[in-house]
């Protein structure tokens, strides 16, 4: 199957969560949504109106939301806490660790405004370290869908999944890649494009950038494997190892700091198994700033053109060390 980027059909991934959680709540009365006074922003306002008996708004009290969710989970309910990613990972961090992950409770932390998408709200609201922090919590599953359809599918999978989970969504509208009937499995990556010269592993919004870069590279005769690693914990280690076979060249792309997130997770596999060079594209050791989302991506080098430039650099290197002349396959 061929996957392409449909820029004419854009929706925020948070909308996918909002629509799917209503459908799930109607099917299963044990599904609850806990809001922290930002239901409209998290797209759970429709759930609150249609299913008020399964909805609680605790106000601006994220730690209390985590505690309430933990309590509900002990009674067999399936609570989804909806908030911004920066609050759902950092402000709630201790409660998630102690009250949810430690007792292995079935709580889902569903967060909008992930990564740099808060844009002009500035660095205080841009969650660039959220997945890295929560990935370290034992038993926590970490998922970031690429767009609206993927979010609906993975939200449904989250409701079926047993145990703590962090779901990360974007504020801005993202292009469509998958159809509405696409199948997903937690912990199993999706290969969107086959290639033998190098692999590009991305998640969330950066999947579309990886596909765009692969198209540009193809015009130069370079065939890139593109992988949507929507789950960074548990990581699809088998797919990472397959990607390492692409002449030992791997690029990771993420809307997240390069420390602790997707790039780190992939690098850990490479460090243990060897045989590949990795280049990580993402936010460097710095906070965000106020600008549009696209401007922030450009400022941080999270672009298709920078992926192409990084690929050219890797293609000129020998995985065993030194420079080599590479004749990419597909010419």
Automatic annotation (TrEMBL):
EC class: transferase
Any Pfam family: Transket_pyr
Entry keyword NAD: no
Family membership: Belongs to the transketolase family.
Originating organism: Luteococcus japonicus LSP_Lj1
Gene Ontology MF terms in the entry: magnesium ion binding; transketolase activity
E.C. numbers: 2.2.1.1
UniProt keyword terms in alphabetical order: Thiamine pyrophosphate, Transferase
Protein name listed in UniProt: Transketolase, C-terminal section
The keyword Transferase appears for this protein: yes
Cofactor(s) listed: thiamine diphosphate
SUPFAM superfamilies hit by this protein: Thiamin diphosphate-binding fold (THDP-binding), TK C-terminal domain-like
Annotated TM spans: none
Transketolase-like pyrimidine-binding domain residues: 11-176
């Amino acid at each position: 199957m061929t996957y392409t980027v449909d820029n004419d059909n854009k929706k925020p991934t948070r909308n996918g969560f909002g629509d799917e959680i209503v459908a799930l709540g109607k099917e299963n009365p044990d599904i609850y949504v806990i809001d922290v006074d930002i239901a409209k922003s998290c797209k759970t306002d429709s759930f609150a109106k249609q299913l008020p008996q399964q909805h609680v708004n605790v106000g601006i009290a994220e730690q209390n939301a985590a505690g309430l969710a933990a309590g509900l989970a002990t009674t067999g309910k399936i609570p989804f806490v909806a908030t911004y990613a920066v609050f759902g990972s950092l402000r709630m961090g201790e409660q998630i660790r102690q009250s949810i992950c430690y007792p292995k409770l079935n709580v889902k932390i569903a967060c909008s405004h992930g990564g740099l998408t808060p844009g002009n709200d500035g660095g205080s609201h841009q969650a660039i370290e959220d997945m890295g922090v929560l990935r370290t919590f034992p038993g926590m599953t970490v998922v970031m869908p690429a767009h609206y359809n993927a979010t609906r599918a993975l939200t449904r999978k989250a409701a079926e999944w047993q145990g703590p989970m962090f779901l990360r969504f974007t504020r801005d509208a993202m292009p469509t890649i998958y159809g509405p009937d696409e199948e997903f499995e937690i912990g199993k990556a999706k290969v969107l494009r086959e290639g033998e010269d190098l692999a590009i592993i991305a998640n969330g919004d950066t999947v579309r950038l990886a596909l765009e870069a692969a198209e540009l590279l193809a015009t130069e005769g370079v065939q890139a494997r593109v992988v949507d690693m929507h789950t960074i914990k548990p990581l699809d280690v088998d797919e990472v190892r397959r990607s390492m076979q692409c002449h030992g060249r791997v690029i990771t792309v993420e809307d997240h700091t390069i420390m602790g997130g997707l790039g780190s997770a992939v690098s850990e596999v490479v460090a243990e198994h060897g045989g590949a060079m990795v280049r990580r594209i993402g936010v460097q050791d710095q906070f965000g700033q106020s600008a549009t989302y696209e401007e922030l991506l450009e400022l941080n080098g999270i672009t298709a053109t920078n992926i192409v430039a990084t690929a050219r650099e890797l293609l000129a290197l020998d995985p065993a060390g030194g420079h080599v002349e590479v004749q990419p396959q597909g010419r």
